[in-house]
């Protein structure tokens, strides 16, 4: 799974990088070196404008943890931070979003944990690793988004009536990520961003073909402090490399 990642680029940098045409500067997110489930995260998506019919590419904050439209509670999202590539086009929770509501989630890299055996009867511990592109380029993680209407809010226009949530698509891990954890997030290559985001593109086979390893598999993994285990910890120090336990 992908349960934590880092996203520290300025929104203006993301607007330029992803050729965004619509962005509200008042919707600000702080850089995060410890993005956790239920956090708000930057996303790039395309929507058809109701007034003009024009397709606009937007930079928007979404809540990480997809809540299907039919879910009874927002809490459902905490268990749906990832969607498996192998079943994403068929599972009821994701298939409509895969067909119509795809997004990109910009990331600097992601964390995974490796179980480290302990001597004797001591409990094994988990060593966190930060996995990121060798060239430090941004990763456009493949995501889906969904709208959820809170039934406890009577007015459609009231704050909290509508939530927009997202999930990250994952697959079997390879290369540097594979030695740490069996699953890893998928990404979309820059040449395929438009095809992935296009809300009129519905062919499941063609969409699956766009899913790829982040940075084309050119990833590095470094051991980092267990400080990242606590969601309250944040800052660039979380990416500092430490000596790997033997």
What does this structure look like?
The chain has 246 residues and is mainly β. It has helices at residues 11-17, 95-100, 175-178, 193-197, 204-210; strands spanning 4-7, 22-23, 32-35, 40-48, 55-64, 82-84, 102-107, 109-116, 125-133, 139-149, 162-172, 183-185, 187-188, 211-212, 219-223. The strands form three sheets. Strands 2, 4, 5, 6, 7, 10, 11 and 12 form an eight-stranded mixed sheet that branches. Strands 3-1-8-9-15 form a five-stranded antiparallel sheet. A two-stranded antiparallel ribbon has the order 13-14. β8 and β9 (125-133) form a beta hairpin. The mean pLDDT is 93. Keywords: Covalent protein-DNA linkage, DNA damage, DNA-binding, Hydrolase, Lyase, Protease. InterPro entries: SRAP, SRAP-like. Belongs to the SOS response-associated peptidase family. It is an enzyme of class 3 (hydrolase).
Please give the structural blueprint:
Layout: E1 4-7, H1 11-17, E2 22-23, E3 32-35, E4 40-48, E5 55-64, E6 82-84, H2 95-100, E7 102-107, E8 109-116, E9 125-133, E10 139-149, E11 162-172, H3 175-178, E12 183-185, E13 187-188, H4 193-197, H5 204-210, E14 211-212, E15 219-223
Parallel strand pairs: 2-5, 5-11, 6-11
Antiparallel strand pairs: 1-3, 1-8, 4-5, 7-10, 8-9, 9-15, 10-11, 11-12, 13-14
């Amino acid at each position: 799974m992908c349960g934590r990642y880092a996203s520290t680029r300025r929104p203006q940098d993301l607007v330029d990088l992803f050729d965004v045409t619509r962005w509200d500067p008042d919707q600000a997110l702080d850089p995060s070196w410890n993005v956790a489930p239920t956090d708000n995260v930057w996303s790039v998506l395309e929507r058809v404008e109701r007034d003009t019919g024009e397709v606009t590419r937007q930079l928007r904050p979404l809540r990480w943890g997809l809540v299907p439209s039919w879910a009874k509670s927002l809490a459902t999202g905490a268990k749906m931070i990832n969607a498996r590539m192998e079943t994403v086009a068929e599972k009821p929770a994701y298939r409509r979003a895969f067909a119509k509501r795809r997004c990109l989630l910009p990331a600097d890299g992601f964390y995974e944990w490796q179980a480290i055996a302990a001597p004797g009867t001591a409990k094994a511990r988990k060593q966190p690793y930060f996995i990121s592109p060798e060239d430090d380029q941004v990763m456009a993680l493949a995501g889906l988004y969904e709208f959820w209407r809170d039934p406890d809010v009577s007015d459609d226009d009231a704050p909290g009536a509508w939530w927009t949530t997202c999930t990250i698509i994952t697959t079997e891990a390879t290369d540097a990520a594979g030695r740490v954890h069996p699953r890893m997030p998928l990404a979309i290559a820059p040449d395929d961003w438009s095809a992935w985001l296009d809300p009129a593109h519905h062919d499941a086979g063609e969409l699956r073909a766009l899913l790829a390893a982040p940075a084309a598999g050119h990833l590095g993994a470094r051991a980092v402090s267990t400080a990242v285990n606590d969601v309250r910890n944040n800052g660039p120090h979380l990416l500092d490399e430490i000596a790997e336990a033997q």
